[in-house]
Design a protein that fits this description.
about 325 residues, alpha+beta, Lysozyme, 2 domains, five-stranded antiparallel beta sheet, 13 helices, about 55% helix, elongated, Transglycosylase_SLT_dom_1, Lysozyme-like_dom_sf, Transglycosylase SLT domain-containing protein
Length: about 325
């Protein structure tokens, strides 16, 4: 495999005006100097996220009996008046648009939302099937449309989060293509994904590993709540900050950047201790760094993808490396 596939130039991106940086760039300040500011910003944002989440759940229950709380399967969005609900069903790969009441006004609102979804799909040149029906539920009539996009529609959901990803990539000095590749392999860009572990959100953050490390390094031990991790912007920030910890803290003394990134990918999935044990038979990060510095990149890649003890991690490294290359090429366009 060509070494250049994991080498990415550092390119500056303009920050989205609609987003507020939750965690500042630390390139010109020590971690200790930045902790107070980070903690204050994080606590404010975390409280706001939890309050908004609870309000949305409470309001939706008043209109919709089946709230579809299976976060691994559904991503659900509501119109301002909560009368129209759009659900992305990741299990059945369908979009379901529902509007309470089939009056002429409701139908117009429903058709407008359906047209928007179809226009988005057609613009991306995705063929699809569309079915519409009126469903009766406890005395109410619900206008329901199901759209079945092609696979590429789901793959292109990365565009929704691209501003956040570019912002975090710049802040945390992580290639945006790597963040995209990890999100794709972790959650397929489902912001509501929750695994059995449990790991949360786009980058599948676990409270006792990635979130704990980010908290300890940047938030003076302030706990990162699971509810907050369901916010896509914050999730990407925390995941990117964790990648920064791996590459610039734990593994910073690995001399070759592409080798450091490769080890970081494996550590993101299996944990840095497991990666250290694979290469050194110990949990010593220093020993891991020394061992990697004495190995060729191709030998490291072969070891991780063919001889690592966890099949999941072997496949994960292969998949992330391939997807990283694909996204890096797309970002050049």
């Amino acid at each position: 495999m060509a070494i250049s596939r994991l080498i990415t130039k550092k390119v500056g991106f303009q920050l989205s005006a609609s987003l507020v940086a939750l965690l500042p760039l630390l390139s010109s300040a020590s971690y200790q100097d930045a902790q107070a500011t980070i903690k204050e910003q994080f606590q404010t944002q975390s409280t706001a996220n939890q309050k908004h989440y609870q309000q949305q759940v409470a309001k939706s229950k008043a209109h919709w009996a089946d709230t579809r709380t299976d976060k691994l399967r559904y991503a659900t969005y509501f119109s301002a008046d909560l009368q129209t609900r759009t659900t992305e069903d990741y299990e059945n790969k369908t979009l379901v648009i529902e509007t309470i009441d089939d009056s002429s006004i409701a139908k117009q609102s429903h058709q407008k939302q359906v047209k928007k979804q179809i226009d988005d799909i057609v613009e991306a040149q995705h063929s699809n099937s569309v079915t519409t029906e009126v469903v009766s539920r406890k005395g109410e009539r619900i206008l329901t449309t199901r759209i079945t996009p092609q696979k590429q529609y789901w793959d292109n959901k990365a565009l929704v989060y691209l501003d956040d990803i570019k912002m975090s990539a710049k802040q945390w000095q992580v290639p945006p293509s790597l963040i995209l590749a990890i999100i794709y392999n972790e959650s397929r860009f489902n912001p509501n994904a929750v695994s059995k572990a449990p790991a949360y959100g786009l980058m599948q953050i676990m409270e006792k590993s990635a979130a704990a490390d980010v908290s300890n390094f940047f938030l003076d031990g302030q706990k990162i709540s699971n509810e907050s991790l369901m916010n896509p912007t914050l999730n990407i920030q925390v995941g990117s900050a964790y990648l920064h910890i791996l590459t610039e803290k734990y593994l910073k003394d690995i001399e070759l950047e592409h080798s450091r990134l490769l080890i970081s990918i494996a550590a993101y999935n299996a944990g840095i201790g497991a990666v250290a044990k694979h290469f050194t038979k110990t949990n010593s990060i220093k020993s891991l760094v020394d061992t990697v510095n004495n190995k060729q990149f191709n030998d490291i890649y072969e070891s991780l993808t063919n001889r690592f003890p966890y099949a999941e991690t072997r496949h994960y490294v292969l998949a992330v490396v391939d997807k990283e290359h694909e996204y890096r090429e797309l970002l050049k366009q």
